[in-house]
Amino acid sequence: MSAYDTVVIGSGLAGMTSANLLAKLGHKVLLAEHHYNMGGMATWFKRKGGHIMDISLHGFPCGMIKTLRKYWTQDISHRVIQLKNVRFDNPQFSLNTTFDKVDFTYILRERFGILKEVIDDFFLTVCGMNFYDEVVMTTRELFEKYFPGRTDVWRFLMEPITYANGSTLDDPAITYGIVFSNFMDKGVFTYQGGTDHLIKEMKKELLKNGVDIRTHCLVEKIYVGDKTVQGVRINGQDIQCKSVLSNSNLLTTIQELTGEEHFDAEFIKEVKKVRLNNSSCQVYMGIKTGETVPNVGDLLFSSVADEYCTHQILSKDVTSRTFSFYYPETRPGTNRYSIVSSTNARYQDWASLSESQYKKDKHDLEQTTLDALEKYVPGIRKKVDHVEASTPKTFKRYTLHPSGTSFGTKFEGLKISRDIPKQINGLFHAGSVGIIMSGWLGAANYGVIVANETDKFLRQLSPSLVTASA
Ligand SMILES: Cc1cc2nc3c(=O)[nH]c(=O)nc-3n(C[C@H](O)[C@H](O)[C@H](O)COP(=O)(O)OP(=O)(O)OC[C@H]3O[C@@H](n4cnc5c(N)ncnc54)[C@H](O)[C@@H]3O)c2cc1C
User: Fold this and answer.
1) Hey, which of 45, 72, 226, 274 would disulfide with 76, CB 3.0 to 4.6 Å?
2) pLDDT tens digits, 340-383
3) Max alpha carbon distance in the chain (Å)?
4) Cα(351) to centroid of ligand 1, in Å?
5) From ligand 1's centre to the CA of 159, what distance in Å?
6) Which of 175, 202, 247 to mutate to test the pocket of ligand 1 (most atoms within 8 A of CB)?
7) Minimal CA–CA distance to 29: which of 9, 12, 10, 5?
8) Among 203, 206, 209, 189, which Cα is nearest to 78's?
9) pLDDT per residue over 256-287, tens digit each?
């Protein structure tokens, strides 16, 4: 007798969303999370002085409203609000935008002097891209086609997306097009109440629907026999289950938790080609009680680099920073402010440092970030009473992602993730992969897709199972 129909490994947004849906569909689900907190990258931390810092609540597309309503609750979805003031400041241009198609069209025409027909054709092309398209061109080729030589336009269109999903000009254009057009639909949104509120509400819903939630539970092994899932080992204890839905990193799921020996050689050859996406550094700045920050924008893409350049964006010598400003409206009633600066980063640049150099470089990152912020919030050093940095090593420690990858894998990871169930009966993977299925919306939606596939598998095993309505 299996103890569970499904063991979900990891409580990122994909893991939690799939666990919730499977439980609503009538299955017995265990959600095992190694950390003491749930949420994965969708997390927060508290510090003395009443500070609450959000890690990845910077902005998501409006599609999240529907996903939260359909697969979570009305109340959760009602808390999604728009961020209307997105700013760019770099040597090529400084401007404010509502970050939607109407405003982008206006700015491209009036500010950058692009012909209306070209803009319309560009939007028609990117908005028409979808997941099932054959990969034909890169984002660089897409931009060359519509805006040849216009590095200012490339920067305007690309810099925010590089921050949102780690994609570069050399990635397939659909990874750009899908994410960009998701944002262009209606703009950028956030969750009022903060990540702590969201995850608390999700946990309530999971418990209500009967999910067995276990934190501090590291899944060490997925047992496979006869090409079929048999169970898992958690904190040294064996647990039988009919299926496993892993929200752990794609490569970890295959190579460490399951073991390459259980997969076909051809499949493993493709697995070895999967590249992890880049990681991040952040600086969290808590504003003193009673202090205020003027409204200088919700999201600020700032850079001192001459042009958009992926290499420079990833460099440890930081030239580009995305500032997220959390005003009291983020957590109504608290009257508190915080600012988070995010930069894309390479794991190796930080992992290779000695302990003392690591500490020094983290301190330098905090100080140079405050220097950069001074331009937008004069006197910032007098306003903050808590400053702290995280690096790719921090992200690795808390989520177990190899190299602390913030956005899963590059494009090739998507096919591998989709093909796992064809290799092993009852083994599924959901989580940030392929650039497209990453970010809050991508991860949650991928959780839904894979939960439905897991449900189908379980129903084939037990045809008499009564269909619950989700
Ligand atoms: C700095 C930063 C900023 C970001 N900003 C944004 C943003 O503004 N908007 C946006 O949409 N997205 C943003 N993202 C990306 C977004 O947060 C992620 O894509 C998304 O949250 C990933 O969800 P996931 O379900 O794939 O898994 P993850 O969040 O990676 O969660 C995986 C979970 O599995 C657990 N786990 C792993 N292995 C095991 C194991 N063996 N046993 C038990 N548990 C295990 C981990 O502890 C973790 O809880 C950002 C990411 C970072 C790092």
Assistant:
1) 72
2) 999 999 999 999 999 999 999 999 999 999 999 999 999 999 99
3) 68
4) 20
5) 21
6) 247
7) 5
8) 189
9) 999 999 999 999 999 999 999 999 999 999 99
